[in-house]
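Following up on my earlier thread - several people asked me to post the actual chain instead of describing it. Fair enough. Here it is, all 183 residues.
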Amino acid sequence: MIEDTGGTPGSDEGMQTHEVEFSRLTLDRGVAVGRRWKRAAHQVGGLQWSINGEPLALILQEARSSLPKEGRRLTADLYYSVLQRSKDDYGDAGRDALRFLLGEDEWEEFPGRTPLLIGECLHVECAVISAVIDRQDETVTWRRFQAHQPGPDVEGYLFPSTLTYTFDREQHDTVLRRAKTLV
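Reply from S.P.:
Thanks for posting it. Predicted structure:
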């Protein structure tokens, strides 16, 4: 519960209590992409983010229609999680993303952003959907989702601002700490 104090200090005037409706973060062992379109479902491997039971990859694939043509083209296959269960180089990107999400490190190429979804090449360097992660004492918010190619000088494509998710920090971080043992 977060309190809003609109009155003078020490008075009850203007004191309002607002319930924050938290989203729930989970990691699933894969997601079927394409089940909502008129084509056969394509099973995507790796660990996949889900928010309130809906795979993030599907949420963003549905929202990509709001992007300009170049952005829709770029995001067409960006539905693989950076959290791949692999012993090769792919695992490094997932471990990095977990550290960024936990506030333990920062992505040097795009400070303030965290890579979440990548393309079939399974490398962040090909193209990525990232988000700004705001960590507070009791909450973590994922916002400003953006698709972009590597390089800070390359234009990115922002998803609608309505795609903002606030999590209870304890629930969010518990999921991430468990994921650290899998990647």
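The longest strand covers residues 139-148. That should answer part of your original question.
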